[in-house]
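Sequence and fold
=================
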Amino acid sequence: MNQELVFYTNPQSRGCIARWMLEEVGAPYKTEVLAYDTEMKSPGYLAINPMGKVPAIVHNGNVITETAAICAYLADVFPEAGLLPQTVEEKANYYRWLFFAAGPLESALTNRKVFDGEPAVEKQRMLGYGTCAHALDTLSLAVKANPYIAGDRFTAADVYLGSHIGWGMQFGTMEKRDEFVEYFARLEERPALKRAMQLDAELVKETSEA
């Protein structure tokens, strides 16, 4: 199919996750690199994403923002890539852990970093994750259960969840538990991830030399 697909990103952003997903589906796409605080806040881009953040994709005139949504959308509209869950059990795990990563996990990791610790005990039940330690213990159980998060097959949920685990261990927001290391080691072998990392590394070099 000849479909127009435009990818708005910055190589030092969550756009890296969307880039990986784009490389997994293998559809041709055009990359638009946006600078923070200037191009991301321009009227033209705000018409695409009023939040003024990347990543975003525009596919045949349809705008998709939010990285987890981009991963799920691309898996859905390019089913030939084989990144959708197939069985009911896979679907249950796929949706459960994709939304867990986009909600409780990301909030827990971000809040712990921003506020330099866990929330007070009396406030924990106000949060969707309770404590970051609780969220990470839950994640440990999830990645121990199967080779990939939905089961025995790699899916789009692994792109999103795996990116959080890889970044978390790299930047010290997530401890290097054995189960996290072993899980991400399987993902690192994906040719699409290697291509995505190379493309973003080249963009970082280009922007730093500009």
About this structure: The helical segments are 15-25, 43-46, 67-77, 88-115, 132-145, 156-171, 178-188, 191-209.
